[in-house]
Amino acid sequence: MVNNEKIRLMTKLAMYETSPDGRDDMQIANYFKSDYLRHEIIKTILAVTFGTIIVVALVLCYQMEFILDHALDLNYLLIGRWILTGYLILVVIGVAVTWIACRIKYMHSHNRLNNYYRTLGKVRKIEEKEEWIKDMEEE
Fold this sequence. Notes:
Layout: H1 4-18, H2 20-28, H3 33-62, H4 64-69, H5 76-138
Helix pairs in contact: 1-2, 1-5, 2-5, 3-5
């Protein structure tokens, strides 16, 4: 006998598992909240660092003629301070945005997973009921 409720619930579970949200949620579920945040913050710091290095290198290449003409007149300490200050501001902003966004993403992910596990529990109850009915019919 076909149980339409079980089929509907299992289809809903399969659609969630194969959706991009479902795949992401399953990966996020492998982390504790603090570990997930730490991992994402480290990725942000690395991205800001590499981005800053690339931008500084491009500016140096673009301004190479000016730098060579005024090599003895430039205040390298001041330039270094400006670069470091800009880098630190970008890191602080990036970490703050990442921290907020990842906390929200983690919370939504766990809410969706709670719904998934609740639906999975309903399917198990239906299967247990079907087994019980089958056992009663055999006796």
